[in-house]
Amino acid sequence: MTYRDYPRAQNRPPPLIDLIPDNRDLLDVSDEEDSFYGKDDDWLISPEWQATIARTTDRIPRRIKRYSAVYLAVAFLFLVSWWTYLGPRYARYKQDLRDMDASPLLSYGNNVRPEFKGMIQVSDMDQQHLPKKHSRLIFVGDVHGCKDELEDLLKKVDFNHKYDHLVLTGDMIAKGPDSPGVIKLAQKLGASCVRGNWEDKLLLSIAEGRERHLASTSGPDDSTELTLDFLDDESNSHGDNKLRKLAKQFTKSEVSYLQQCPVILRIGQVPNLGSLVAVHAGLVPDTPLKRQDPFHVMNMRTIDLKTRIPSSKHAGTPWEKFWNHRQKKLHESERTTVIYGHNRKRGLNIQEYTYGLDTGCVNGERLTALVIDGHGKTEIVHVKCRNEMGYNAD
Amino acid sequence: MKLPTELLLLALTHLASCATLRPRSANFASVRGLTSLSTDHSSNNDVLRPEKYFHESTFHSHYDGRFAEAQLPPQTRAFHLRLLLRSYMDTMDIIGIRTWIMHGCLLGWWWNGKILPWDSDVDVMVDERSMAELGNWWNMTVHHYTAKDLGISAKDMEKPKIPHSVEDQKAHLRKLYLEKEVLRKGKKYLLEVNPHYTNTSTTDRHNVIDARWIDTATGLYIDITTIHVAPTPPDPRDPSSPSSNVEDEDILMFTKDQHAYSHYQIFPLRRSTFESIPVRIPYAYESLLAEEYGLESLTDTWYNGYGFDPDTHEWVIAEPTEQQSKELADREAMKPKPKPKPKERPKPEPKPSPKLATGTVVAEAPHSTGEGVHGDKAGQLGDGRWPPGPGATTKA
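Above: the input entities. Below: the structure tokens describing the complete assembly.
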């Protein structure tokens, strides 16, 4: 018995379903045809394509499909950043690599290296100082007259005069409180040194003053004279009063110690590290040590990759980047590791073939030592500067 | 009553001539005893540039017309330039004047310690104190150098082969004659100081050279310029106090030919040798060269018809090698197109400035203004606006 047959239903209004008009003949759809269950026909995309799209999109989980807008936004952001920032950066990086690999003919270093009076270009460290079982090599960056800190540092690394050897990588003097003290200490310990830009300036000024002095007195150089009295001469004042004041603090033996500091100090072969070289500022790759320009060795910070001309400016490609890149191209036995200072802004800067040690002690930061033992193991040791404000704050 | 009128007349004529008289270099009549010439070959600038002190020759701006009637044959010019430089450095050393080489010389020194073959002059600088000493004590002094003093003997003279063409033979004979003269009589050098050296303003355009060291046999000379300390601008917060506490680094210096330098670029001076003569070199020599001639001047081994031989380390006349011309062309292509300049300045002597067209051999083009206008625009001051003007105090 159906509902309609139910007698009490007869008087009732017709069920609502009957009120729905049945426009069967208007609607041209029949659920008996296949197309009723098929997908809507899209005239823009051919069915094969539609099938392919369906096949692939069906595989993507719904959860992911839901976030497609976010993905689009991210992709767009990436594109924009590529166009504006990453792309040019990448291009520059590629260009740098190309420049570093190229070897142009018209580049720096074709000239004959200028020869200077009173300047030693390259010398070798005494091979007996090379690190052995119990002895170590200790490199200290720009001391700048911070004698107390140097003493602290030597105590911290447990420096033993008998076994260990100290190498100062230039700029031992100037700016700080006790420049002559540092040199005295270096002499006492028999330390090796290289000529930094400040030693260079000081020695040149002293040489100039001495010449003037000789020219005016026209007597032979009084070699017994211990101090550099002639620097009192007003005659050589040329705006460089500070330098003159500094020069006057030194005795003759200290000046002759500075004089024997070479621009480039060849340390020698150390196991695991290969051949080591100490300079004050940096070196140009692929140029023999004998032909390096001494001014740049004492002053460079960056290098122009196109012309290979070094510069003392901070902006540009750091020379050590170029150096490391070129060392990796060389045969292992020809690679050289450079230990240097000079670049306080970069601070401690250790890379595979370069060790930058200037940590700005005189400015109130730290004094750094690189300790190399007989096995070629390296260790970095710091001490804090005693004067937190730095010595040349005034 | 006759005498006073005559005296008055005499005084008047004297006054009249005085009105147009300006200091200028010793005239031909006064150097008669020194020169071998019978007529003056100086260019006459009395009308065009009456305030100019030194007068170059009519035929080339790097010769003194009172002592030369023609240019030297190029084969012997370097020889006489070397002697000129040696005698100058030697004299300055003896009389205690601090002097150093600059410009084209410095570039030659940097490349191989020798004078560049296309360079026809020598540039040196002195400081203010030294210039005053030269002016006060050594002006118009003649310094005699024998062949021995100059370090030459008959043995050193190469036995040259006689050239074929008549032109070359003439030059060759002249060369031999001049060299014989040096051996026989030595050389006399004249130090002449421009009295305008006390005027340190760069607006004094015609007297940018402060002194000259002149070879009285050939008319070649060395230009001596003074380096001045630029007046420090007063502190804007406290204009009354002169800013005295300036670090060396900050001291600006300039020369009258409108080059600006920092104190630390020049001082302290280095000692080196140039043409095996002991000379002084400015402290930051390479930065000076890069500023004046561009970085290319330190890298290019081919310039202006000359190539740098990597084996002999000499500049020799050469065609650029394939690799060189390729790299030069590549660089030319990389360069951004320069904007057309409103006014083209006359190009000075062929110095290794990269802006000079590479590929054309510039041979001894006499330049229009005379007194060494040096190289490039780089490192030069503006158009004479600074220091402020004539009479500005420059001693800090």
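Note for the figure: The CA atoms of residues 121 and 280 of chain A lie 12 Å apart.
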